[in-house]
Amino acid sequence: MKKVLIGVVAAVALAGAGFWQLSGTAKAAPDVTFTSLTGQKITTQDLRGKVVFVKFWATDCTTCIQQMPDMVKSYDKLAPQGFRAIAVAMQYDQPNYVKNYAESRRLPFTVAIDSHGTLAKAFGDIKLTPTSFLIDKQGHIIKRYLGNFDHAAFMQTVEKALANG
Predict the structure, then answer these.
(1) H or E stretch covering 52
(2) Which of 30, 50, 72, 145 sits in a 20 to 30 Å window from 154, CA-based?
(3) Whole-prediction pTM
């Protein structure tokens, strides 16, 4: 009985996520301020005119860590075209772990820590990692990713967004 209930809850959640992604209405990204590990403050308004990938992650999230090399490659390839990436460490993540990971891997994109959980709340009360959002040049969320995703399809979506005015 418990397995059936878990299956039903998972199916409903996935259906809701799929509907949200497929419904033609693009949702505006929340108006928030990211504070990088270096103390730089970046608002979603500052990022207008860029295609932005916001990834909620944690240093203890295996999938998050597995995805980082692809995130670095994507950023390195697409940044000259106006692509930005912000890796937002979850509130429960130890700041020294995040800083050590970012420095030792020489992450080329902005890394921020959501120390009060306000960013996760603003993006829909994010609890699971990795959860990521692709935001177009006008500041609309065009895709939400939960867990692993098809990297080739992601690259196509980003390149299409970069080509659109």
Answers:
(1) strand 51-57
(2) 30
(3) 0.84
Residue 106 resides in a domain = yes
Domain membership of residue 52 as a residue range = 27-163
- What's the full length of the chain, in residues? 165
Q: Kindly state whether residue 51 falls inside one of the protein's structural domains.
A: yes
| pLDDT per residue as tens digits for the range 10-28 | 443 443 444 334 444 679 9
Q: What count of other Cβ atoms lies within 10 Å of the Cβ of residue 47?
A: 20
Give how many domains the chain has, as a whole number: 1
- Look at residue 53 and give its three-state secondary structure: strand
Task: State pLDDT tens for residues 130-140.
Answer: 999 999 999 99
* Residue 1, domain member (yes or no): no
147, 60, 54: which is closest to 97 by C-alpha?
Answer: 60
